[in-house]
Amino acid sequence: MSRRRVAVTGTSVVTSLGSDVDDVWNAICNGKSGVSLIERFDCSEFRVRFGGEIKNFDPRSHMQIDGKALRRMDRFVQFAMVASDKAIHQSDVLSASFDPYRCGVVIGSGIGGLDEIEDQHSRLFDRGPERISAFMIPKLIVNAAAGNVAVHWGLKGPSSAIATACASAIHSIGNAFRLIQGGYADVMVAGGTEAGITPMGIAGFARMNALSVRNAAPCSASRPFDRDRDGFVMAEGSGILVLEDMERAQKRGANILAEITGFGLSSDGLHMTQPDENGEGAARAMIAALEDATLPADKIDYINAHGTSTPLGDRAESIAIRTVFGSHADSVAVSSTKGHLGHLLGASGGVETVFCIKAIETNTAPPTINFETAGEGCDLDYVPNEARDLKISHTLKNSFGFGGHNACLIVSSV
Q1: Is position 394 annotated as part of the catalytic site?
Q2: pLDDT tens figures, 125-162
Q3: For residues 96-119, average pLDDT
Q4: Catalytic choice (62, 171, 306, 340)
Q5: Which residue among 122, 194, 196, 281 is least crowded, i.e. fewest CB within 10 A of its CB?
């Protein structure tokens, strides 16, 4: 069976650097950081007191939405609603012979409604079981983002939510890609969303020793591939794409931003939180994506790395890239934009896929900021500290999650 081509006709991000794609991209290329001290709650007694927090977020300043409906949405859902609204409007996809039964949603999240869990837990013990909100469950479940997006726009096609930790968004986009490829849908809203900057979220990851503890210098705390990296920086937000059957998009005269050409996934099958030290599972996922795209490794111009700024993860990913790309590994540009934003967990792949599309559009490889001295085993071209003009036709996006979940996406120019 022939496979349909899949276009990207809409993109959006909600991040600590803003919610306009072009503005955020310019900030990224100019080396700006959205990491700061946390203001949503008192964390003066916490081991970690900073993150990629979105300040003063009000969905109603970004989209038209009923206040009553909004109160029934956790923060992670609100991020996804705003990002989906912007992406759908950019694509103008719902105004062209819209068939709701051929339009679906796949939006992932690593954690879901942690804000709601903590709030209702306090209610339970402070005020008793009868004071728990009747809307608690539909607010906190991981599929609440996909469900609310489908409800708001009346999308009746394939709809699901994927929770594979930090690989959630790439798995979501990849699954949406496959649904359109196989003819099961014509349009998919896909990506990830996360709101893990809560007391329990920060404390939990800190207790794992997963987070950077550079409280005195938040902006330089996320240091992908650098010798002095000491953990990732928690961040929040959403990244959403509108994917569309290429023929349909061309027929309606859509502005086609890029094409999804390959998707690969694998499992380490080794450890719940630590990657394979040689990146074997990550390498298999990259190879699978290249094979899916029928693209030789030396055609990849830019890799947006998972690059979380963890000692084990960055080294393993670097080894995996060298394994897959061989001699081309010395000439491919590799960067991690988590130095700017921190790690958005299940939303990171959605936001970073948007950056891959902007890299193609602007022929610019974004920098890896806070990079001073390469860490052991980190011997690639990480585009240190300054964006680089570069002709970019094919990009590869890596995302790897707890549980050994690996996902890779190839995004190409049209």
Answers
A1: no
A2: 999 999 999 999 999 999 999 999 999 999 999 999 99
A3: 95
A4: 306
A5: 122
How is 7-29 classified by DSSP, letter by letter? Answer: EEEEEEEEBTTBS-HHHHHHHHH
343 noted as active-site residue: yes
Let me know: does 255 contact 9? Beta carbons within 8 Å.
Answer: yes
In tens, the pLDDT along 387-405 reads 999 999 999 999 999 999 9
Dihedral sign computed on CA atoms, order 36, 41, 45, 48:
negative
- Whose tokens are 């010395």? That residue is 330
First to last CA, the chain: 23
Q: Per the residue annotation, which of 29, 103, 166, 408 is the catalytic one?
A: 166
Q: Note whether 222 and 232 are within 8 A (CB).
A: yes
In this predicted structure, the answer to whether residue 1 has a pLDDT above a threshold of 70 is no
Backbone angles phi and psi of 406, in degrees to 5? -120, 135
Domains of the chain in sequence order:
7-251 (3.40.47.10), 261-412 (3.40.47.10)
Annotation says 328 is catalytic? no
Determine the Cα–Cα distance for residues 46 and 23; give it in Å rounded to an integer. Answer: 32
- Residue-wise pLDDT tens digits, 169-226: 999 999 999 999 999 999 999 999 999 999 999 999 999 999 999 999 999 999 999 9
Question: pTM above the 0.90 mark?
Answer: yes
Adjacent-strand bridge partners of 349: none
